[in-house]
Fold:
Amino acid sequence: MTDSGSWVSLFSGGKDSSWALYRALEDGLTVSHLLTVHPGEDSYMYHVPETRLASLAAESLGIPLVEVEPGDLGAADVADAGAQGDRELEPLEAALVDHRTELDGDFAGVTAGAVESEFQTSRIRGMCDRLDIDLFAPLWQRDPRDLAEAMLEAGFEIRIVQVAARGLDESWLGRTLDADALAELVELDARYGVHVLGEGGEFETLVTDGPHMDRPIELEYETVWDGTRGHVRVTDARLGGAKK
Structure:
């Protein structure tokens, strides 16, 4: 992997992609742009809830954001997850091809927050091979609890914005993922098999502050709960004051 040239961070605003970005910056990689795919209501490849808030995160980070709109993704084909995953990758790859053209050969690679999903990672790796660029995936096959603890130790402020797993009730919506919440997730993993980082969609997150952000994201929201799963519906979001 080269540390020269510019990198694009595949970025949803959630904890995993945010950690990949943070680690890339800490390792001295030049991240020129963030790229967010807005997948609509459901997706095999992408983080879904509240991706529109990525623009606030980008402003706080001071890194330009490229957005790929849901209309580019085509209709879901639930009968063939593999084919749908391939189709969902197409607009992302097209956006990166355009970006490489603009950079005139100075495009080193992309960062990704994949932890254990071979479904996602194999497709992103294949895309990088086709584009002849590198992949920086610092979370890949790392211990989930170690990763969560590292995020908290670094000063990430993480909000849970969607839950869909046994043991995660409405009280988790909007909750901060802190040491107490992590300890409960470890217990839920032992009891129900809930992944500590929510891999596989058990829960989704939004990073509202971190050491690489100049200003925190402030939220107002309501919760939507159907009895077994739910999500946060953000009613207002803004950047708070600059840190001292």
Observations:
- Residues 45 and 89 are 8 Å apart (CA to CA).
- The chain is about 35% helix and 25% strand.
- Residues 144-239 form a domain with the putative n-type atp pyrophosphatase, domain 2 fold (CATH 3.90.1490.10).
